[in-house]
Amino acid sequence: MESGNKNPDMDNQRSQDNIELLPIRDPDHTTETDCTPLIPCSKYDYVLVGKEWPDDSEHDRKQKAFIKTLENKGYQTQKLREKNKVYFGILAPEEIFSKYAYLLKNPDNCSEEKMVSTPTRIRIVKFMLDNTFIGNGEKLHALLKEKVFEAVFPLHEETEQKKLINKWARWTACFKQQPINEVRMYFGEKVALYFLWLGWYTYMLVPAAVIGVIVFLYGLAFFESNPLIKEVCEGNSTIMCPLCDKCPMWQLSETCTYAKVTHLFDNEGTVFFSMFMALWATWFLEIWKRHRSQEVCKWKLNNWDENEEELALDLINDSDCTPDRYQHSYLRSILVMVLVCCMIALIIGLAQALVVFRVIATVFLSDSKWQLLSDHANTVAVMMGAVLHYLTITIMNKVNRKVALFLCDLENVRSNIGKERNFTVKMFTFQFLTLFSSLIYVAFFLGRINGRPGSYVRIAGMWRLEECHPSGCITDLFIQMAVIMVLKQTLSNVVEFLSPWVSYKIHNLQDKSPKGGSESNCIRDSWLRNYHMNEVDAFSLFNEFLEMMIQYSFTTIFVAAFPLAPLLALINNFFEIRLDAIKMVSLERRMFCKKTIDIGIWLQVLQAIGVLAVIANGLVIGVTSDFIPRLVYKYIYGPCAKGATDIDCMSGYINNSLSTVYMKDHNIRRDFELGQLIFNGNNVTQCKYKDYRSDDDYAYTSQFWLIFAVRFAFVLLFEHVAVVIKFIAAWFVPDVPLAVKNENLDRKFERLKRELRKMENRTTDI
C-alpha cells in the first residue's frame, strides 16, 4: 500500500522519507489493496523512469495512460518514488514467451519451464514496449522524446554480472580466453559476435604487425648506407626553388632528416608488404567465416531468421495486425541519391578546405620569426592540417549520423533490419570519405597538380599549391595517417572509457542513501544503481563496430605508406577488448540484446575494404612512392645500365629526378619575389625542382613518359595479381568447415527421425 506519512525531521528514516514503494498492479485485480507480494528485485524485465509530474498535467496523464495500457495487456507493474522521480518496474506475462517459443519452434533450445533465454526475453519485452501506444497513437519513442519518460532499460543480473567481471571484464583477464558463450547468454548473440570478431581480428593482426615491423627495420638497417640518403644529405651545392610564395631558396641537404624518414617507409620491402596485406585481408575474412560458423554451430541457430522473428513479434503484440508491405519509390530513391551526392560533395569540399589551410599555413609559417618554424614550415603545416583533419572528423561524425538517419527515414524501409542495413552503409560511406578524402589528396594529387616555376597553379590566383619533397610524397601521407590514427585511437579510447567511468562515480557519490536488506530496499538499490549507470541506445554497439571498421581501413588501405599501422592497431585492440568489456558490464546499463547469426552488413563492408585496399596500395606504390622511378633509373638511366661496375646503381638518382629553371627567363622571375632570388647574400641564377622536364622549353622528357607508362603497367599488374590471389584464397578456404556441415546434417536428420516417429506413434494410437 502507498505510504503518505512523510516527516522531514526523521533523518534516521531517510529511506522512508524519500522513497515510496507502491504495490504491484495485477491486471486481474481492480484495487490496490488486492495486490500480490513483491517480486524479487532481479525478476523485473524492464524499468521505466520519468519525472514525477504534477497530478492531471498532460505528461502525468500520458505516463499513467501508458502504464495502464501495459496493465491491460497483462503486464504487472511496480511503482517506486525517489527524489522527484518515479520508477515503474515492468514484468511481462509468461504467455507472450510461450507464444514466441511455439511460433519460432523454440529458437533458444530452452526447456519447457524456461521457454526463452534471458537475452531473448529482454528483446521480446523491448519490442512490446516499443510497439505499445496510448489513446492518441503515441508510442514509447514519442513519449521519451517528449520527456514523459526519460529512460527505459533492462536490469543487470547482479550474480551473472559478477561472474562476467571475474572471468572477463577486468584488466587481469587480458591474457585469458574470452568467455563468448557466457557473453552471449548475458548480452545476446550480436554483442557476443562483436567480441568474437574483435578477438579474432586482434589475433590475426599479430603476423601483420610482425611483418610490418620487419619492413620498418629493413629500412632502418640501411639508414646510413643508402646512396639516396647520402645524395640528399651531401647536396650542399644543389639550390632548390622556393616551396611557397614566402619561402626562401634552400639547399637540398637541409632536408636530410626528411629523406631518412622517407626511406623508412618507402623501400623495396614496401611492395612485398602491400602484397602480403592484400593476401592477409582475404585470409582474415575467409578464416573468420569458418571461425564464426564453428561458434554459431554451438548455438544451434542455423534455421533462425530475423525477418520471421519480427513477424512473429508483430503477431504476438497484436494478433489482428497486418505486416508492412515491401515498397519502392523511384522518386524517393532519386531524392536519396541526390542528397547522398550532395553530402559527398560537402565532405570532399572540406578536404579541399584542408588543402587551402595547409597552403596558407605554409606561407605564414615560412615568414615566422621563429627559425625552427620557418625552416620546417611545410612539415609543420602538414602536421597542423592532420590535427585539423582530426577535429573535422570529430565534428562530422555527428553531422554524418543525423544525415544518415534522415535519409533512412526518407527511404521508408519496411523492416528494422532493412533500416539498420541502409543506415550502416550510409554512415560508413560518409565516415570513410570524411577520414580518407584528405589522405586520397595527399596520396595521389599532392605535388602532381601544382604546376612548375613560371606556371604555378594557384588557389584563387593567389596561393601556390603544395609541392612534394625531392624524396617523394609518401612521408606526407605517413604523417597524415600517423597523426590521425594515433589521435583517434588514443583520445577516442580515453574519452570512451573515462567519460562513463567519471559519470558513474559521480552518480554513486551523489547517492549516499543507506543500503538495506529488505525486498523493498533490494528493489530500490537495484533500480537506482542501474539508472545511475551510463545510458546505452541502439547505436552503442554500432559505434563499436564502426570504430573497428575505420581502424581496419587504416590497417589495410594505404598500409604501404605506414607499415607500422598493424602494430598500432594490435596494441590498441589489446586494450580495446577489455575497455569495451568493463564499460558494458560495469559502467553502462544493460545493452539491448539482439539475436543474429553473423555480423550482418559489416561483412560486406569488410569485403569492400579489402578490394579498396588492393587498389589503394597498388596506386600508392605505383603513383605516390618513388619505387617505379627508382626502378626505371636503375635499369635504364643509372650508371649500372651504362656499364659501370665500381659504383652503386642508384648513384645520381636524386639529381636525375630534378629539373632546372633559369632566372633569366622573365616568366620564371615573375613567379618569385625579389627577396627569394637571393641566397646567402648572392643572386641566384638557377634553381632545381622535382620533375622530369626539359631545361629549355619545360616540356616533359621521354623519361617522364616512360616512368608514367611503367607506373600504369605496375598498377594494373599489381591489382590483377592481388585480385587473383584473393579469389584463389577465397575459393581454397571453405566458409564453413566440414565438421560443422556434418553436424548440421546430423541435427536435421535426427529432427526428421523424431518427427517421423511421432507421426507413426499417432497413427498406431489411432
Automatic annotation (TrEMBL):
It is found in: Cell membrane; Membrane. It comes from the Eukaryota. Its main location: membrane. Residues 112-180 form the Anoctamin dimerisation domain. It is a multi-pass membrane protein. Coiled coil: none annotated. It holds the Pfam family Anoct_dimer. The chain crosses the membrane at residues 194-218, 270-288, 334-357, 377-396, 428-447, 549-575, 596-621, 704-733. The keyword Glycoprotein applies. Belongs to the anoctamin family. This is Anoctamin. It comes from Huso huso. The lineage of its organism: Eukaryota, Metazoa, Chordata, Craniata, Vertebrata.
